[in-house]
Every structure is written in C-alpha cells, then in structure tokens.
Amino acid sequence: MTIHLARDRRLAALLFLLSLAPFAGAAEYVMDPEWPKPLPEDIEWGQVPNVTIDHEGYIYAFHRSEPPVLKFDPEGNLVDSWGGEWIQRPHGFRVTPDGNIWATDYHRQLGNTISLFDTKGNLLKRLGAAGFTGAGPNTFDGPADVVQAGNGDFFVADGHWNNRIVKFDSQGRYLMEWGKRGSGPGEFNLPHTLVIDQRGRLLVGDRGNERIQIFDQDGNYITEWDQFGWPSGMFIDGNDILYVADYQSLRGVTYGSAETGEVMGFIEGSEPEGVVVDADGNVYTGEVTGGEGGDGMIIRKFIRQ
Fold first, then answer.
1. Each residue of 150-173: pLDDT tens digit?
2. 3-class SS at 282?
3. Containing structural domain, residue 29
4. Could you tell me the pTM of the whole model?
C-alpha cells in the first residue's frame, strides 16, 4: 500500500508540473494493440527486459525465452530470430553506432558476460568469464547495459552487484573504471542503463538512487537529474530527446531534453524496463512484469500522434 501511494503521489506531482508548463515539443501517444503480430506457435514470449532498433528501422526484442532475440519489421511482423547458449539471462541490448548489437547476460551462476553480435546473430566479441563473478578488468557481476561511443570505446554498467562503470577501448582492452555503492556523486546503487548524448556525455541511470548521473567519458562527474523517476532503460532519439523507462515508481516513460533535463511529457500505459524510439517518434517498450493492467502484454508500441 505504501509503495503504491508513493508512486501515485510522484506521478500526480509530475503530471501537475507538466500541466502548469506544457512544453511546445510535447506529443500525444496512443498504444497500438495490434503490434506486434502474434508469434509462431513454436515461440512463446518471455520477459522483455530490453528493446532496440537497428539502422534500417527493425525492432528487436531481447526476451527471456527461446530464441532470445526476436526481430520485427515496423508493421510488427516477426522477420528473424536468433540466439543460443551464449546467453542465460538476457538483460541489456543496444545497437552500436556501426550497426552491431551489444548484449549483456546477468545470470550470476552461468552468465556475467557481455557479447557483441552483428544483426544476424554472429558473435563478434565477448568479454567476461561465463559462470564466474568478479570485479576485475575482465570479470563482471551482473552487467546491466553497454553503450558504445563513436570512437569505438564502450562502457559497461556492471551494475547489479559491483556498482561500477567500466570503460574499454574498441579492441576490448580495459581502460578504467569508477564507482562504488553509495549515494554521493560518482557512487551508485544499481547503475542499470547507459546512453551517450550528442555532446558526448555519458548518462548513467542510477536506478536505486532514483536519479541519472552525467559524466564525461573519463568518468568526471558533471551533474545529476532526479526528475525521471527510477531509470530502468534510456534512449536518446535523433532530436536529442531523452526517453526514460521506469516500471517501479512512475510506471511509464518520461521524456525530455537530453541537454537540460527539462521534462516534456509522460507516456502512461506500461511498466517498461526498456525503451526505444523509431525515426517517426513511435515509442516501443519492453516489460518484465506482464503489465500493470493484467493484459499480459510485455512489448508495446505507442504511436506518436
């Protein structure tokens, strides 16, 4: 009861602030109940902790069933699927600037790896020691997300138990790390999601601390925002709009300026863990709860009006 009251108060406060100062760029969204189309009989949906979009506009669901990667066209038709023993517990899933896909496996006993694939599912690179936990330069403990910079360097949110950000070069060589459990600047309580904005800043969704911390790519703290709820997933579109998925407190997607953090709007109707946006501004969410309304939907499309 207390959790629901706190959530309702936070959501009411957010919606009240939006009503006082409506943003000119705010949009209306309507859920598409026909997206995606039904899966083949031999594939069953599992939890969908993440969704991503490739450079051709195909949407990918990273779900906890077999095969773990499902690829859809914009109309919601399943056009490809792939996976295998390389992933035990799907979590982070993000397309790189050069068109490949990073995937994280946060299974503590069998996983703890990050893997780079092309869009056909061919393994290109893998870091971590499957089945081993650690906090060394090539071991993880519950990696949550990976984001790659334009120069090929990439950052790992080694978040579930290590509470650190680890930086590697394009060849997978360890460069540096920062963070520990705490609530101060540069400290984390489950760094869960990462994005890099148009200014090259690294945004870290510090979910347990209910904030987004912003750093340069050398780990220097810049600022933080607390107006986006509990960030589980983040995405920045081509218009420099930040979308933040929150299934624990606000239960929806808050979006606003990736430069200033000014909130522009809120999309209700889901309990999103992951979020991605297509070139037309349509929003896709992945869920691990099955939906607050009990409709059983775990991936949704919200059409921009």
1. 999 999 999 999 999 999 999 999
2. coil
3. 2-304
4. 0.92
